[in-house]
Write a structure and sequence with these properties.
InterPro entries: Collagen-VI/PIF, VWF_A, vWFA_dom_sf. The chain is built from eleven helices and 34 strands. It has 614 residues and is α+β, with helices and mostly antiparallel strands.
């Protein structure tokens, strides 16, 4: 399309599109809805520049989606326009070609009814948002709104629901952080820079979020395109959950489920506390089912989000005790939003220099006390058949947790479904196989009896590293494809082979408990990790101390009830076992650390050895 530019007699710039004459805005304060913003460097309209910028954003989204094997995990976008009214142009979709068609068909809008636009965007998110997806609104306007306070209220409602808002403007300002102009205050208040803004006055803005940069302003088309590129970079580089947050069974939230079976004749007395984000929570409620078979514990407390821990409600932690005839089984279900994860970041500059950072975190810890079931101690003198068999095998030693001498795998487990974006468990890109550790020796076929290799790239210690990984032909068989060049590759979305190779044996096993400290195994699309960091502790009996014979017979003392010690304090520094891989086993490490707080309570019984297996 070609434009005829004219200069009106009053000095205002205008152009002719067919038979229509369109006038440019005269200043940042020009509120005439029939005037449009022109960019001096290219003399194109605000709308044309916006179309170019948005289509560039959609192109990056499409390129990213092409690398995602799971259709349910692809990024989606929707489009809402607003003038005197708001209109939903597209619901959320990953069909970027259709979205680009909608963008290209947009016409110039009159008016700036921002509140209606933000309200409709909020409605779209509420109706269409996936539970496992972050929601982001890119709010673009080229003029001050008719309804600024209402728009700010709608924006706050969005922010309160967890939506991130980028505000993009085309105002005449050299410094977006100069709060003197109303336009800057308004855009700052709408954006996530001020999450609690109630209005556009200085007193209504509230505190600015630390390190926030969610309001951007473009002086020309190039800057506008650059802003949308920067927004895409910021959004796409956000860390993702290592576990699937929408499971095949239909759960809206993924979780890591810890299961801990107690020793025979043991029962849970109480759940004393949860430690999360460095804070201890003790307030809780307990509810036992009508049939008495289960007890559910619900903790109370909320944690404000920060770069390491997300906003969390302890009520989302699902703690259940199943009461059996012989013992109890504890289940702790930690939802995705409560997982304390190490945030590992790698940045590569234009010269190829690498910088890496890691934010350490502490595990979530759940403390509970256990003791002998009621009546067991009294029954030792006259045991029934089952208890007699137990005593014959174990003596009068009762363990707080299930104990199997010298078993390969621990009985406490952590189960979860890895996200297909988690490259420890899945190939996230098509990956060539080689016969040897040589990229000039590609595999042309797979022999079940052979050994093959693939190259893995990772970033650590401020450098880029390459690592050859060996895989057996038996593991690779049936999981590869052959490309047009005749070379064999593993397609993206395939589970990584040889997960059992990451089993970590204990350096010593003096307690004769599980021989493996940690042992992950695939179970369909889920991973089950056996945790063997429990131990069997033995305490020598106190020597008998002679007591002077009383002048009169003393009344016989009642048997003393078992004593469950207070929850142990976490060590000052906790380090996961070396998995032999340079890629962090994020979820399994979290699982191992959590278990350290689950089954380490000491059971002491006076008059016996007081031995304990955790």
């Amino acid at each position: 399309m070609s434009y005829d530019y004219t200069l009106s007699v009053d000095g205002n710039v205008a152009y002719k599109d067919g038979d229509t004459v369109i006038y440019a805005k005269t200043s940042a304060e020009d509120a005439n809805p029939d005037h449009v913003q022109l960019y001096n460097s290219y003399r194109i309209t605000r709308l044309a520049a916006l179309k170019t910028a948005v289509n560039g954003f959609l192109g990056q989204l499409a390129a990213c989606n092409a690398q995602i094997a799971d259709p349910a995990a692809k990024n989606r976008a929707g489009i809402v326009t607003f003038e005197s009214k708001a209109e939903l142009k597209s619901r959320f979709t990953d069909d970027t070609a259709a979205l680009e068609g909608i963008v290209n068909g947009l016409t110039d809008l009159g008016g700036t009814n921002s509140a209606k636009g933000l309200k409709l965007a909020h409605q779209l998110i509420d109706e269409d948002k996936r539970a496992n997806a972050d929601s982001v609104v890119i709010f673009f306007t080229d003029g001050d709104p008719w309804d600024g306070d209402e728009a700010i209220k709608e924006a706050k409602s969005l922010k309160d629901s967890g939506t991130l808002i980028y505000a993009v403007g085309t105002f005449q300002t050299d410094d977006v952080n100069d709060l003197t102009p109303y336009s800057n205050r308004y855009m700052q208040a709408v954006s996530s820079n001020y999450p609690n803004a109630a209005g556009a006055t200085l007193s209504e803005l509230g505190e600015r979020a630390p390190d926030s940069d969610y309001y951007m302003n473009a002086a020309d088309a190039d800057q506008l395109a650059g802003i949308f590129n920067d927004i895409w970079t910021a959004i796409s580089s956000k860390p993702s959950s290592p576990i699937a947050t929408t499971t095949e069974s239909g759960m809206e939230r993924g979780a890591v489920t810890f299961t801990d079976e107690l020793g025979e004749y043991m029962t849970v007395k109480d759940f004393t506390s949860v430690v999360f984000a460095g804070e201890q929570f003790t307030k809780k409620t307990a509810e036992t089912s009508e049939d008495g078979k289960t007890t559910a514990y619900t903790f109370e407390g909320e944690v404000a989000g920060n770069p390491i821990y997300g906003t969390a409600n302890l009520a989302d932690l699902v703690v259940t005790v199943t009461h059996g005839e012989q013992t109890d089984t504890v289940s702790v279900q930690v939802p995705e939003q409560l997982l304390p994860l190490r945030l590992y970041s790698a940045t590569v500059d234009q010269n190829g220099a690498v910088s890496t950072t890691i934010n350490d975190t502490f595990p979530i810890r759940v403390f509970y006390s256990v003791a002998l079931k009621d009546g067991v101690e009294e029954a030792l003198a006259n045991p029934d058949e089952a208890l007699a068999a137990y005593i014959a095998a174990n003596g009068e030693t009762f363990t707080s947790n299930k104990y199997e001498a010298n078993a390969e795998l621990g009985s406490t487990t952590a189960a979860f479904t890895p996200a297909k974006s988690n490259d420890f468990y899945y190939f996230v890109n098509d990956t060539p196989l080689y016969n040897t550790e040589n990229t000039n020796d590609p595999a042309k076929s797979v022999d079940a009896n052979g050994t093959y290799h693939y190259m893995r790239t990772y970033y650590a210690d401020n450098a880029k590293h390459e690592q050859w990984i060996a895989v057996s032909g038996a593991d690779a068989n049936g999981k590869t494809q052959t490309g047009a060049n005749g070379n064999v590759y593993v397609p993206a979305g395939t589970v990584r082979m040889g997960l059992a190779n990451y089993t970590v044996a204990k350096q010593s096993n003096v307690t004769a408990t599980a021989t493996a400290a940690i042992a992950p195994r695939w179970d369909g699309t889920a991973v089950n990790v056996a945790l063997g960091n429990n131990g069997r502790l033995a305490f020598a009996e106190e020597p008998a101390v002679p007591t002077p014979e009383p002048s009169e017979p003393a009344a016989s003392a009642q048997p003393e009830a078992p004593v469950a010690d207070a929850a142990p304090q976490a060590p000052a520094s906790e380090s996961p076992a070396d998995t032999g891989s340079n890629v962090a086993l994020i979820v399994c490490i979290a699982a191992a650390l959590l278990c350290a707080g689950l089954g380490t309570l000491k059971l002491a019984r006076r008059g016996s050895s007081g031995r304990h297996a955790g």
